[in-house]
């Protein structure tokens, strides 16, 4: 449903039934498909078992990455964008889980965040007539500068909002509630008999 809905998001942004809308539709599909395949093949190359979940995550990464470029790149370039974004996001997820204690249960930043960054840079590189590959550096440099500004603004703004919220309503539960599980301690939901409760990661803001 998300993949199908993304067609309306990208192709619909043309606000017309035009050649640009058609190209946006096509590149959205190919980027997502290539990203899904790249994710599971890259998992296999790293000795992990390819999974349907991995394919779904890869597809979302491809959708995110192609969004700024949809309608402005070719089919071949969309495949390249989806593949690159998928591999880079896969590596970021692996690095985050292995060497970081930051809590990101759904891997939102390594997938959506990094995927969007890759797509933004790739747009500046491949955009028709104004991209780096067309001999124009302005769009590419503009996207790089915008990426740095938005990243700094988002980090600072999020940090400030989390701090203010934590002063009003603490974001972290007690160790006892964490051990019990948030399903029960926070939501009053009982797990089915025989099913082990999942202990989700909790937000760290410090």
Characterization of this structure:
- By secondary structure, the chain is an all-alpha fold.
- The chain has a single domain, classed as Ammonium transporter fold.
- 66% of the residues lie in helices and 0% in strands.
- It is built from 8 helices and no strands.
- The protein starts with a helix and ends in a 21-residue tail after the last helix.
- The C terminus is likely disordered.
Q: Can you describe this structure in just a few lines?
A:
The protein is mostly helical. The chain has one domain (2-154): Ammonium transporter fold (Orthogonal Bundle), CATH 1.10.3430.
Radius of gyration: 20 Å
Beta-strand content: under 5%
Ends distance: 36 Å
In DSSP terms, counting alpha (H) and pi (I) runs of 4 or more, how many helices? 8
Integer count of domains: 1
What shape does the CA trace take? globular
Structural class: mainly alpha
Which residues form runs of ≥5 with pLDDT under 50?
201-206
> At the third CATH level, what is the topology name?
Ammonium transporter fold
Architecture blueprint of SSEs:
Blueprint (H helix, E strand, L loop, with lengths): L1 H9 L8 H27 L6 H15 L8 H25 L8 H19 L11 H31 L6 H6 L1 H4 L21
Helix pairs in contact: 1-2, 2-3, 2-4, 3-4, 3-5, 4-5, 5-6
């Amino acid at each position: 449903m998300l993949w199908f809905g993304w067609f309306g998001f990208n192709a619909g942004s043309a606000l017309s039934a035009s050649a640009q809308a058609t190209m946006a539709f096509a590149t959205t599909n190919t980027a997502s498909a290539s990203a899904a395949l790249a994710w599971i093949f890259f998992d296999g190359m790293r000795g992990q078992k390819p999974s349907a979940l991995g394919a779904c995550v890869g597809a979302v990464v491809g959708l995110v990455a192609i969004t700024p470029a949809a309608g402005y790149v070719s089919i071949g370039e969309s495949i390249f964008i989806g593949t690159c974004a998928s591999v880079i996001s896969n590596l970021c997820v692996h690095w985050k889980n292995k060497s970081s204690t930051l809590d990101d249960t759904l891997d939102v930043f390594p997938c959506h965040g990094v995927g969007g960054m890759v797509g933004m840079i790739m747009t500046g590189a491949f955009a028709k007539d104004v991209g780096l590959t067309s001999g124009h550096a302005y769009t590419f440099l503009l996207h790089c500068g915008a990426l740095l500004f938005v990243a700094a603004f988002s980090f600072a703004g999020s940090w400030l909002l989390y701090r203010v919220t934590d002063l009003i309503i603490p974001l972290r539960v007690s160790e006892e509630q964490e051990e019990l599980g948030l399903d029960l301690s926070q939501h009053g939901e009982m797990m089915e008999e025989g099913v082990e409760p999942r202990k989700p990661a909790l937000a760290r803001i410090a």
